[in-house]
Amino acid sequence: MIQVVLADDEVLARQKLRQLLREERDIEVAGECATASETIELVRLVKPNILFLDIRMPGMDGFDVIGALSEDRLPMPAIIFTTAYDQYALRAFEVHAVDYLLKPFTAERLHTAIYRVREGALANESAMGSSEVDADALGPATRIVFKSRGRILFLPVAEIRWVVAEENYVRLCTAQDTHLLRETMSHLETRLDPQMFLRVHRSYIVNLNHVKEVRTEQNGESIVVMNDGHKLAMSRGYRSRILESMRR
Predict the structure, then answer these.
(1) pTM for this structure?
(2) Could you give all domains of the chain from N- to C-terminal order, each with its CATH number?
(3) What is the pLDDT of residues 156-171, one digit of tens each?
(4) Going by C-beta distance under 8 Å and a sequence separation of 6 or more, which residues neighbour residue 95?
(5) 3-state helix vs strand vs coil in the chain, percent to 5
(6) Where are the alpha helices (DSSP H) in 129-207?
(7) What mean pLDDT comes out for the span 7-18?
(8) Are the beta carbons of 62 and 53 closer than 8 angstroms?
(9) Whole-angstrom Cα distance, residue 132 to residue 34?
């Protein structure tokens, strides 16, 4: 069974969540709490697999709870935020939250969040049912979360064909669109799967699944040609790395 803790200062919100969780046959609610301090104490006591965590709670907020739990030498539960506020979504994923549910959410949306835990972090548990779940178990990012034109977008990284640095921003280029994020290339590079993404220039990261060829132009400059025909500059120091990656 997957042990979960419900942390929300609203009794009705906890009741609603508990009711929705009854549809998940492998979920067992190990306890409920209404304040940040209660949440920290209960998680330390029962060591749940999943913590459903509200953000605005008496005493401390949800991020304070995560900070306190991170100081322990105990397994960290998978975090699923449940909140009525969308402005904390980016920060939530920076602390490796598995999902971010905006109230009121449906049973289907809840099921999707739990599915991500089952197929992600919990897939690394032993057959004996260890409750050890930590941020590293989630591995490289599978999606990038950001605000765009008043919306919160969840972009699967597999859809990114290449990334371009633009001063203090990076531009994520997909088949249909581009998205500008306030992010550094170096930090973004650490979040991406090195088996899929490779930095070929200080200003470019490419998705190897969309690379057609690497060639040298008449002027002696090396370039990466993408499947859709786009040409990206490649530094000489990266040439051997990308050729090796393409031979795998």
Answers:
(1) 0.55
(2) 2-138 (3.40.50.2300), 143-246 (2.40.50.1020)
(3) 899 999 999 998 889 9
(4) 63, 66, 79
(5) 35, 30, 35
(6) 185-191
(7) 95
(8) yes
(9) 24
